[in-house]
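Hello again, I could really use a second opinion on something today. My current little project is about how a certain protein chain folds up. You're getting the sequence in one-letter code plus the fold written as tokens. Here's the protein in full, and shout if anything looks odd to you:
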Amino acid sequence: MCIGWSKYFAHRKQFLGSTCGLARTLISDLRLDKPKDPSGCPSLGPYDKGTEEVRATEGNRALLTVFALCANVSKTFGYDLMLWLPQCEEACDQLNKSNECEGDTVLVSIARLARIAVRAMEVYRRASEDSSFAQHATMAIEPLKLALHNLRTSFSHEIQQHRTVIASTFTAEVAIYELALLQSPTPLVPPLSNPHSLFASRRVEYLLACLQTCKACCDYTLAGDVRDISVTSMLIFPYCLKTVYKLAVLKDVSGWDPTIATATVDTVRCLEQIAVIAENANAKYKEETGEDSVFGEAAVMLRATAPNWRVPTVEQEQTVGDVSAPAWNCDIGGDFSLMDFANDFWLSGPMNF
């Protein structure tokens, strides 16, 4: 509840992280992530079959909800992942079978989308830690794309149009395509014998797909009412803006023109637009309640911080110098120190990277 309604409260990003940790602990304490009938562990106590029906409904919903929310928070902030468990698959199957309400179908769809995002995030993290694995990280994109395509084609039209399903799809797509941002500063093996070089020609294609996904996410968010935004949209929208910024300062990639990113998505303009939307939402709330809302604070801070997201010119880059470190993704330059949003308003959680 706290995670899902976090847009109405002025909490720091650490709030979402700690709340996700608490939710995962509760899932474990309630044994929702354990087999229903564990093979004789005295410390777990006797299994109460009287609670089986409750566990099969509310327990399944709780497990999948926590998994999906934690996946989105982990994607945005880089927190520890909650892995997909056999119990998650069982929960999906049981909710689909019982079909008690339409919300269960939506929840299962969101959870399965989150699973694909988590798989991509696992590849990204392993590649960031293991240079030899990172040489082949791009190879994971096509299988993940296929898995996402097959999942989406299984959705009904109504499910595909659900706003949280749409936001979850954006999250999965960005998680997949941003694997193309991974690149070694120096090849570990000669280029002619490097299997990764076979996929180099497709890297620009993936980067463009990532950019188009970010644009679609921004357009979708800006076309809606901020009062109806879901926590998933609240998290992926600023993440997409940051990804666009990365693409706009991505250098030394054969075939990639960074100006394509700035021409496709103007991050400063997006923040100014969302500030206007927040102002309008605050005006409506004030008309109803007589008081300003958290959206008013958001609008002020968004306007104040928007200039920090302006892509530096060549002259500015020469003045600042190269701030990138010689590591994986070293071709992503730029000064991210100013892109740190305040901690005291609605969007501070997802935007305070």
